[in-house]
Structures are given as structure tokens and as C-alpha cells.
Amino acid sequence: MTLAIYRNPFTFLEAPWYRDLPDADVVISGIPFDLATSGRAGARSGPGAIRQASANLVWDSPRWPWDFELGERLKIADAGDIDFPYGEPQLATDAIQAFARDLLDAGKTMLSFGGDHYVTLPLLREHARKHGPLALLHFDAHTDTYHDGTTFDHGCMFHHAMNEGLLLPEHSVQVGIRTTFTYAGHPFTVLDASWANENSAKKVIRRIREIIADRPVYLTFDIDCLDPAFAPGTGTPVAGGLTSDRATQIIRGLKGLDIRGMDVVEVAPAYDHAEITSLAAATLALEMLYILAEKSS
């Protein structure tokens, strides 16, 4: 059968769409929320853009360099976008947590598309409720541990997550950081962008594995971890980031980690060009699914 890759894909990788709990291992969901942005808004359109770009990945199966087809080992369904009233951050937070609670209690693994990075906080609350405190593997240009008294802010989620006891700081890693922070007293290990670019992907992977070890981990990827040359469509672009190839190699190298939940956030397609950012996000999400599938074999 010839695949028409330019038809409108309403789901990620053309996975089955559902509203009730599916017979699936992994559930995709979109969170069109960007009320917590500090820079350019527009990430509420990210989930749709990632799904649209995923049409370019459907025909390539099995995905290079994997030697199996994703669907042979992993059942995937797309739940569409989470519903919540616009302009109400607390109600949106409650809706995200209720949605995640239902899926996690049903034994599903979540792959969520933001939305701005604030959405990771309500997701972390439910994952920690289900699995206990988690190691955090965080790809970003920013540490998102800032705190100026705000509650709904895409730059302070991990400050709140630490205070709420959701994370295992000694087993948490941040990759690609290249904005202001102080190493002294910082709760997480930072592999900054300069270090991650100067060293091999294998060395970055090895260091991540040393820190996380066998702890349950939540994986969150802010697309601004990538250099703006590879991801211009985001609200807070920062020069000097990772290439899409380097990030993909690192994600592939995470196979075997005890990943309990994942998200890709901060895609703002209004600032994109030729779907560069959306395609990068869709590709990283696909690699995340493959590492889950490889572990399940």
C-alpha cells in the first residue's frame, strides 16, 4: 500500500484515536496550554504541529537504525488534546492531573506534547503519586528552577517539583543548559550545552546513566534544548544548543532506562519554518517510543 504522507494526520504516526481507555501500552496526548510563557506565546499549537509533521515519519518503518517495526512491540493510541477552559491556569492544571491520573491508574505509559513547559509539573505530580519520587532527565536551554513567587510559570516547575518532593535530585540530570544559573547549590547535575557539544554522544549517555542508574525516571524534552538553527519555532530560543542529530543519538542511547513518563514541549509553530521544529519534535518523540519498545522486547 502506498502511503499518502501529505494527507492530514489527525493522530501522531496515524495511531488509532480514542476517547475511552484504549487497549494500548502508550497513550499520546496533547496539552494546548501556553499561559505560563515568559517569552513568545504560541506553544498551545504545538501538539497539532507535531502530529502533522509525524506524517513524514510514517513511511519509514522500521525507523533507521532500529531493526524492528514499532508496532510489533508496542501498542500506541492517541487521545487527542486534553480539554480545559481557556484563561484558567488552575482549572487547566486540574484537568491535566485528572487525565493523567486515569491513564496511569489504568497502567498506561504517557507521552505528552506541550504546550509550554509548565505542563510537566501537573504531569510529574501524577507520575510521582503513582510511582513515587522520580529521577528527572531534562533537556533544555534553561534549568527551570527559577522562582520569583509565581505559581504558573514555565521557568519554575522544577523548583516547585523539588519542594513538593516529586523528584530525586541526586539522580536527576539536565542536558543542554546555557542560560544563567549557579552550579553551587544547584539541586541537579547539569551537563551544559558546551560540555554536551564538546564531548561525544556516548560520553553524554554514559554520564546520564551513571547518575540515574536504576531509578524510575521522567523524561522531558524542551525543544529549545536544540540550537535555533534546528528548532527556530519555540518561544525562548537560545543560540549554542545541541544539533538535532546529537539529541537524537542521546535519546537512542537511553534504551534500558526505567522510563515511566515522557513529554516534548515548547514547540511554537508560528515561529517555525518548513516544519523544522515540529519535525525535530516528532522525530525525538518517535525515538522515545522506540527505546520503550526495545525495552519491552
List keywords for this structure.
eight-stranded parallel beta sheet; disordered N terminus; alpha/beta; 297 residues; single chain; 8 strands; Arginase, Chain A; globular
Can you walk me through this structure?
This protein has ten helices and eight strands. Mean pLDDT is 93; it is low at 1-6. Helix 5 packs parallel to helix 6 and helix 8 (201-212) crosses helix 9. It has helices spanning 46-53, 55-58, 70-73, 89-105, 120-131, 157-163, 193-198, 201-212, 244-252, 276-296; strands at residues 26-31, 76-81, 109-114, 135-139, 173-175, 189-191, 217-222, 259-265. It has an eight-stranded parallel β-sheet with strand order 2-1-3-8-7-4-5-6, sandwiched between helices. It is α/β, with parallel strands linked by helices and 297 residues long. The protein is globular. The protein has a single domain (12-296), classed as 3-Layer(aba) Sandwich (Arginase, Chain A).
Question: Brief overview, please?
Answer:
With 297 residues, this protein is α/β, with parallel strands linked by helices. The chain has helices spanning 46-53, 55-58, 70-73, 89-105, 120-131, 157-163, 193-198, 201-212, 244-252, 276-296, and strands at residues 26-31, 76-81, 109-114, 135-139, 173-175, 189-191, 217-222, 259-265.
Task: Describe the main β-sheet briefly.
Answer: 8 strands, parallel
The tally of beta strands, per DSSP, is 8
What class would the helix/strand composition place it in? alpha/beta
What is the domain total for the residues?
Answer: 1
